[in-house]
Amino acid sequence: MKPDVQPNKVVVLSGAGVSAESGLPTFRDSNGLWNTFSWQELASPDGWKRHPEAVLAFYNERRLQAWQAKPNAAHAAIASLEAAYEVVVITQNVDELHERAGSSNVIHLHGQLAYARGTSEMPKRYRIEDAPISMGQLCEEGTQLRPDIVWFGEEIQFFREARMHVATAARVLVVGTSLSVYPAAALLNVARSRAQKVLVTLDVDKWPFGFTFLRGKATQVLPNLAARWLSEAGRVA
Ligand code: APR
After folding, report:
1. At residue 100, does pLDDT exceed 80?
2. Cα 77 to the chain's mean position, in Å?
3. How far apart are CA 80 and CA 83, in angstroms?
4. Is 16 in the pocket of ligand 1 (CB under 6 A)?
């Protein structure tokens, strides 16, 4: 039995492309992080085991960069939808630009740079904002602190909750993601056929069935889309 679609619910699935115009690099574009660095060495449990110092340095740099970045017009457009809709932002991004733009319901599937966690079975999380993590820095249970980031091969966070939100959304907006990484990309499979589904990105090699594709930069496409959706709800942008 499928859950009911909530007519006033908008779910946004965002990826690195939504933060690109805030100066944060994506992963798979020509100048993306995984074309510069090796994810096997820096974003995997194996890489952490082999050289934790290099992993800590990589994330310390990214944490500082993300902390200094500013939300852009795309983050603001998404936040503005809350004036008329119940908006759930499901992001693969580890920055806090959606929150800083005013989005109040953000689910981070791949973790957050502003947090560290221990390396025990049930690790505690610590908000560290832009502070670096160093070798020998331990959690209160005495284990080495690590970035609170989901590495390749680790289980993503809040997936069941995210699926439920996509399955009950009347509008699904996918922005700035190559849909290359699972299970995040599989969330689109539960979007309802009757939901309005829009994909905003620069180039698409995976065009999910039933989605309208709006090619363009997120800061150029989203303000108009948000204004249209707000006027459909009887609200002026
Ligand atoms: N506006 C809109 N889309 C953009 C922009 C922009 N200004 N700039 C880039 N894009 C698009 C690219 O065309 C591409 O489709 O954003 C997408 C970025 O894709 P990726 O670099 O693969 O990033 P993402 O999809 O978020 O990666 C998912 O992979 O490595 C893991 O954990 C990492 O969360 C990340 C996951």
Report:
1. yes
2. 16
3. 6
4. yes
Q: Which atom of ligand 1 is the closest one to the Cα of 92?
A: 34
The structural domains of the chain, ordered by start, are: 1-24+71-110+156-237 (3.40.50.1220), 26-68+113-149 (3.30.1600.10)
Lookup: tokens for 187 = 């969330």
Distance of alpha carbon 80 from alpha carbon 198, whole angstroms: 17
Residue-level length of the chain: 237
- Does ligand 1 have an atom closer than 6 angstroms to the CB of 202? yes
d(CA 9, CA 69): 29
Exposure string of 182-214, with b = 16+ CB inside 10 Å and e = fewer, is: eebbebbebbbeebbbbbbbeeeeeebeebeeb
Phi then psi for residue 8, to 5 deg, are: -100, 10
Average pLDDT over residues 202-210: 87
User: How far apart, in whole angstroms, are the C-alpha atoms of residue 167 and residue 3?
Assistant: 7
Whole-prediction pTM = 0.97
Residues 133, 57: Cα–Cα separation, whole Å? 8
Which residues carry out catalysis? 110
pLDDT of residue 237: 61
Q: How far apart are CA 176 and CA 163, in angstroms?
A: 19
